[in-house]
Amino acid sequence: MTGKKLLYFDCFSGISGDMTIAALLDTGWSLEWLEAQLQALPLDEEYKLSLDKVVKNGISSNKFDVHYHNHTHEHHHDHDHAHDHTHEHHHGHEHAHDHTHEHHHDHDHAHDHTHEHHHSHDHAHGHTHEHHHGHDHVHGHHHRTYKDIVQLINESELNDAVKELSLDMFRLIGEAEAKIHGMTLDNVHFHEVGAIDSIIDIVGTAIIIDALEVDKVIFSRIPVGSGSIHIDHGVYPVPAPATLEVLKGVPLVNSSIKGELTTPTGAAIVQALADGFSTLPAMKVEKVGYGAGTKTFKDHPNVLRVLIGEETK
Questions:
Q1: Is the pLDDT assigned to residue 82 strictly greater than 60?
Q2: What is the value of pTM for the model shown?
Q3: Helices first, then strands: H and E counts in the chain
Q4: Cα(67)–Cα(5) distance, rounded to whole angstroms?
Q5: What pLDDT, on the 0 to 100 scale, is given for residue 9?
Q6: What is the C-alpha to C-alpha distance for residues 130 and 86, in angstroms, rounded to an integer?
């Protein structure tokens, strides 16, 4: 009898949703296959995906991006997308934004944060929209609430295991945001771009994990980075509050790298999938995948490495 099929996430540079999808696809899945699977979600008019090879500090890695249709947005994403999204926009709107954005992104991550923002605004929203228009990209979706995303996943044609894992990850992020912002889960908002990025990153990860049919998923300890990041409500230390909330119970490792290495989406992937944490486990490695993050660090490849193989004793 063969040993168990093991998937090991070597998160030496943290983890984000886009890094996860890029690394997992690099073990032998095509972007076309993932796009076909994602057709089960009624979202295809809203985004397009790209997968490129980039070299990060000497390591050739997959780079996965979600491009939001027709707006200018595309860029964002290229930022790891998820993030940015977020926030800024909405709120306070007017003000807020502008500034923000930029940064964020480069933070890759910041992302998810996102949601939060809105809330406070809740009120805001209503209007919100208008603004957005301003940005014209809306398609009528403005913000998506946690409830909207749950409904979208539940009503999709994804299989039950993928639905369950996706909802698990979204719940972890939604509960963290709700707790930090002192609101109820149903009122947590994901800004439009943030929502698309997060949905693709989370559901895409769940689809590939389900297809891999592994028996066990182990992660290394998780570095979160250091320094500070700008999110809608000001400058916060890394890890961002939502990321830290999602990572409760996960062994973190100190890192002197300035910047956000682990995003809220990355944290939710860890929390939802990990069967354990260790240094490289005893295994016979059959496949290795590398997924690049958006940022580049001077002496440190910003990539996530995944190993698939048979557990050995």
A1: no
A2: 0.79
A3: 12, 15
A4: 33
A5: 98
A6: 16
